[in-house]
């Protein structure tokens, strides 16, 4: 009636870019599933004033801009000043007869902002609570201040900087003091909030027999999303021992039963190892508690494995040698009752390689919980055409029970359904092609294969291998322009951490290659290359439904799970990928013959490491690889600066941990099979339907049900709560308030 277009309004809204990549997006999917499953769950985090940077491409280079996402306000959040809490830093520890006291601290206030998380059509609304840092009003004014009032007020920024900006590293640890402050800030505020809520509920009320906290692990489960909130373990111990005066052993038993830890990466450079001296300065009491945890932990191991000093060194929470560091993953394992990886293959690597000593000690502690995605956002919202087509065939219930997609197997030979699936994909491609033409001024052939590689830019994800394939296709077209070539639009997108030189060079290389390919008249509309600027959730929602081929080509054993892979599968793309992360389980569900699997398996990578990876060998034996690498090296793609990419080439030959050349030949051959199948539209679409029909396992609803039953010990409820405008029946009204799931 107002003459407004909903889609236009949706375009205006800013993404809440409060995470880096898979980890933050997984948390968002989990919140959606927990609400949909009727779990009484809270998501806690930091309300960053500036989220992940906006990426601009200028002259082929990534340039970062601040993400001022709150500029126009955020209508979904509600500040809750009545729940503001103090968080302490620095200071010193006093030991008295009554126990330890942390004194002379600096205080920062944590102001919570609540965002509603609605379940799907069940009248359940959960809460995401994000903390913002505020200086107390007497900040810098209380102590022996000579009267520079103006400077004291300006210095309030120092405290409030804690929630100013998201660190933009994905799969990389940067041991900065501000980052540690952020990690402790969210942990300290959240634990106070949880304990306040526990004490206010009927379970927290003191009765004469039991200590107040005996029922704590029955009422509270805390899942640590990677090691970033690991300080929650010593913090809860500090609260129990120093403030609530519980004996150590009782406090430790409760703490272990409360926490569970999810590991999200096996890359050594991503593991958090905080310098002891930094922790001692910022959180002196927590360091003492960590030392005590470690002492008891090592005493226990020594009692089982006497005289095995090397085992003690390997399993210690403290790493000696050079600067002493705290291994946060070890702290999480020791302080949790459950540890899980995020895909079968990853959980195996966690058990048998990364944390093998811990798994030998307590094998029952280690589990797998394969990641999933919410079908509400990643099908219904982003691909209504496909969602409706599926509903016509199998009904609407699949949205809350994605396993029902298997019913689509009955229609894999239904000619009408095959045509309709292909039609929806074509419509999505045309729509996205129009978007690309508007944004990039490139003419897109909407009947070409949309070959898409979108994720954070990282060497292990091997965007370089894709780049080498693009150059190989380009060279083949130029060598024989008359030969049949299956047209492709190759779309690569993703952000590089601002300090990651190699990742930024990879972006520049892709753009340099794109410039040559897209302006070569011999190539014409056969091959187009686009670097998708500022890849983010709202852009993923546009590109994924339009994709034909999903690139999931990490070196086997490096991608813990991946979730983009699942989104593409659910939206009717076929996957070219290695046997890594959740790709393994996707192949298991759909049948390996319905994915394009290539390259080394984990065992092959291990074997190649053992004998020593020699990149030169592949370069010498594969003429097309040699040609492509020589073009990069000689400045074919950077004529004004011939040695622009020397660092990239040098890395590929001399320190490529991810063995791009070793998988190049298998990758190119596999891509030929992809092109061959794409020529047969019907066979392609039948394979697409088989993939969609097998995607049910990868709902985050399934993942969360597994966490709930195996780790949190709560039962999901599919009861639809009556809406507030309907009177509840009299019996139900008598249910006591404050019941916790």
TrEMBL record:
Residues 726-735 have a biased composition (Basic and acidic residues). Gene3D superfamilies: Glycogen Phosphorylase B. SUPFAM superfamilies: UDP-Glycosyltransferase/glycogen phosphorylase. GO terms for biological process: glycogen catabolic process. The keyword Transferase applies. GO terms for molecular function: glycogen phosphorylase activity; pyridoxal phosphate binding. Homodimer; enzymatically active. Interacts with PPP1R3B; recruits the phosphatase PP1 which dephosphorylates and inactivates PYGL/glycogen phosphorylase. Belongs to the glycogen phosphorylase family. This is Alpha-1,4 glucan phosphorylase. It comes from Pluvianellus socialis. The lineage of its organism: Eukaryota, Metazoa, Chordata, Craniata, Vertebrata. The gene is Pygl.
């Amino acid at each position: 009636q107002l003459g407004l277009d909903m889609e236009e309004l949706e375009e205006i809204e800013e993404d809440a870019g409060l995470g880096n990549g898979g980890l933050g997006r997984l948390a968002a999917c989990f919140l959606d599933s927990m609400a949909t499953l009727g779990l009484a769950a809270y998501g806690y985090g930091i309300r960053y004033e500036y989220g992940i940077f906006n990426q601009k491409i200028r002259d082929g280079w990534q340039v970062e801009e601040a993400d001022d996402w709150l500029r126009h306000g955020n209508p979904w959040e509600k500040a809750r000043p009545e729940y503001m809490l103090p968080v302490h830093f620095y200071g010193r520890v006093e030991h008295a007869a009554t126990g330890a006291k942390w004194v002379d601290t600096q205080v920062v206030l944590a102001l919570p902002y609540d965002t509603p998380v609605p379940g799907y059509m069940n009248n359940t609304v959960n809460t995401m609570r994000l903390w913002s840092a505020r200086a107390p009003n007497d900040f810098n004014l209380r102590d022996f201040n000579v009267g520079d009032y103006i400077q004291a007020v300006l210095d309030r920024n120092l405290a409030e900087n804690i929630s100013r900006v998201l660190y933009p590293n994905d799969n990389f640890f940067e041991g900065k003091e501000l980052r540690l402050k952020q990690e402790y800030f969210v942990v300290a505020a959240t634990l106070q909030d949880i304990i306040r809520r526990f004490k206010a509920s009927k379970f927290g009320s003191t009765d004469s027999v039991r200590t107040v906290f005996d029922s704590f692990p029955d009422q509270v489960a805390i899942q640590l999303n990677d090691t970033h909130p690991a300080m929650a373990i010593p913090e809860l111990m500090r609260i129990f021992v120093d403030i609530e005066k519980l004996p150590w052993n009782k406090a430790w038993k409760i703490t272990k039963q409360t926490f569970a830890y999810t590991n999200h990466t096996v890359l050594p450079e991503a593991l958090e190892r905080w310098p002891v001296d930094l922790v001692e300065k910022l959180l002196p009491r927590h360091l003492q508690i960590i030392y005590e945890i470690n002492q008891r932990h090592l005493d226990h191991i020594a009692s089982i494995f006497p005289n095995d000093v090397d085992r003690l060194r390997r399993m210690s929470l403290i790493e000696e040698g050079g600067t002493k560091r705290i291994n946060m993953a070890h702290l999480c394992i020791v302080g949790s009752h459950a540890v899980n990886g995020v895909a079968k293959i990853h959980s195996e690597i966690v058990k048998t390689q990364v944390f093998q000593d811990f798994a030998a000690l307590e094998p029952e502690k280690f589990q797998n919980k394969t990641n999933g995605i919410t079908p509400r956002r990643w099908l219904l919202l982003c691909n209504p055409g496909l969602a409706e087509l599926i509903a016509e065939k199998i009904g609407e219930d699949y949205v809350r029970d994605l396993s029902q997609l298997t019913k689509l197997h009955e229609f894999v030979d239904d000619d009408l359904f095959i045509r309709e699936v292909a039609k929806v994909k074509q419509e999505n491609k045309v729509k996205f092609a129009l978007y690309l033409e508007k944004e990039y001024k490139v003419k897109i052939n909407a009947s070409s294969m949309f070959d898409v590689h979108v994720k954070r830019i990282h060497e292990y994800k091997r965007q370089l291998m894709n780049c080498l394939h693009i150059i190989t296709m380009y060279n083949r077209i130029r060598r024989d322009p008359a030969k049949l070539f299956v047209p492709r639009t190759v779309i690569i997108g993703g952000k590089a951490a601002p300090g990651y030189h190699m990742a930024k060079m990879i972006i520049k290389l892709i753009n340099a290659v794109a410039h040559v390919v897209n302006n070569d008249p011999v190539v014409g509309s056969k091959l187009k290359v686009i670097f998708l600027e500022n890849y983010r959730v709202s852009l993923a929602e546009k590109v994924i439904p339009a994709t034909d081929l999903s690139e999931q080509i990490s070196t086997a054993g490096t991608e813990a799970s991946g979730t983009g892979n699942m989104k593409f599968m659910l939206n009717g793309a076929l996957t070219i990928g290695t046997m890594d992360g959740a790709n393994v389980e996707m192949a298991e569900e759909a049948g390996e013959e319905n994915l394009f699997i290539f390259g080394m398996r984990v065992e092959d990578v291990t074997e190649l490491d053992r004998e020593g990876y020699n990149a030169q060998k592949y370069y010498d034996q594969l003429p097309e690889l040699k040609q492509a690498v020589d073009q990069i090296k000689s400045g074919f793609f950077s004529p004004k600066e011939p040695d622009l990419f020397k660092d990239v080439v040098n890395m590929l030959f001399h320190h490529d941990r991810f063995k791009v050349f070793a998988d190049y030949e298998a990758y190119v051959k596999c891509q030929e099979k992809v092109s061959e199948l794409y020529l047969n539209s019907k066979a392609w679409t039948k394979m697409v339907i088989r993939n969609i029909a097998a995607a049910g396992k990868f709902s985050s609803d399934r993942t969360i049900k597994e966490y709930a039953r195996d780790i949190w010990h709560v039962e999901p409820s599919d009861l639809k709560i009556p809406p507030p405008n309907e009177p509840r029946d009299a019996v139900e009204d008598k249910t006591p308030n404050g019941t916790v799931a």
